[in-house]
Write a structure and sequence with these properties.
It is a single chain. The protein is an alpha+beta fold. 23% of the residues lie in helices and 12% in strands. The chain has a three-stranded antiparallel beta sheet with strand order 2-3-5. It has a two-stranded antiparallel sheet with strand order 1-4. The protein starts with 12 loop residues before the first helix and ends in a 14-residue tail after the last helix. The model has no long low-confidence stretch (mean pLDDT 82).
Length: 188
C-alpha cells in the first residue's frame, strides 16, 4: 500500500503566534465578568438570584416557588382519611425500583380488624434514600396510590442509618390523602 503524505497549510505570522485568539477569548471573558458585576446576569430574575451570576444563594433563597409541577422529590407513604394505610404490600414498587432502594416485609392484618379479609399491610417498609434515584417508578406502579414523590428536595442525615427511612418516617413525611386520588384523571 502506498503512503500518502498530506501537506499542512501554511500559517500566517498572526496564526503562528495565536495572540489574536488569546486576546479575543480574554475580551469575551471580561465582557461576561463586567456584565455579571455591574448588572444582573441572564436568568437572574427567573431564579430569584442576587444578580451575581445565576447561582442562587441557597440558605437564604430556596427553590420552593420555582419548582416545576412535574418535579420528583422525596418518596413518602400516605394514609387515607380514616388513617388506614393505603399500602397493601403488593411489593410492585420493590420489584420495579432500579437501584433496589425499597425493602418491604409483608404482614397480615389482625383478624379482629374489619379490613382483615380485604387486604394486607406492610410489617416493615424501608426506603434507602442514599440509593434512591428519584425516578418516580414506584409512584407510577403503585395500584393503591400509596406512595408519592413529594416536592421536597432537602433530605439530610448525619449517618447512613438516618438516611434509611422506615415505615413510620415515611408516613410522617407523606401525611394523609383525602378521597380517592386518581393521578391520571386528566388523561382520561
Amino acid at each position: 500500500m502506498a503512503t500518502i503524505k498530506v501537506k499542512r497549510p501554511d500559517l500566517s505570522t498572526g496564526e503562528k503566534i495565536y495572540f489574536g485568539s488569546i486576546f479575543k477569548g480574554m475580551l469575551i471573558t471580561l465582557r461576561h465578568a463586567f456584565k455579571s458585576l455591574f448588572g444582573k446576569s441572564v436568568g437572574a430574575d427567573a431564579l430569584a438570584s442576587s444578580g451575581m451570576g445565576i447561582t442562587m444563594q441557597y440558605p437564604e433563597q430556596k427553590w420552593d416557588e420555582h419548582l416545576p409541577e412535574y418535579y420528583r422529590g422525596t418518596p413518602a407513604l400516605v394514609t387515607d382519611e380514616q388513617q388506614r394505610e393505603r399500602c397493601v404490600s403488593c411489593q410492585l414498587c420493590e420489584f420495579i425500583c432500579p437501584p433496589k432502594a425499597i425493602k418491604i416485609t409483608p404482614g397480615e392484618i389482625d383478624s379482629d380488624d374489619e379490613w382483615a379479609k380485604v387486604e394486607k399491610r406492610p410489617k416493615a417498609f424501608e426506603i434507602d434514600m442514599i440509593r434512591c434515584i428519584y425516578c418516580g417508578m414506584c409512584e407510577e406502579v403503585c395500584p393503591e396510590q400509596a406512595i408519592y414523590l413529594r416536592p421536597d428536595y432537602i433530605t439530610v442525615g448525619t449517618s447512613r442509618s438516618e438516611m434509611v427511612h422506615d415505615k413510620d418516617r415515611l408516613y410522617e413525611i407523606g401525611g394523609t390523602r383525602v378521597g380517592l386520588v386518581n393521578k391520571w384523571n386528566d388523561l382520561k
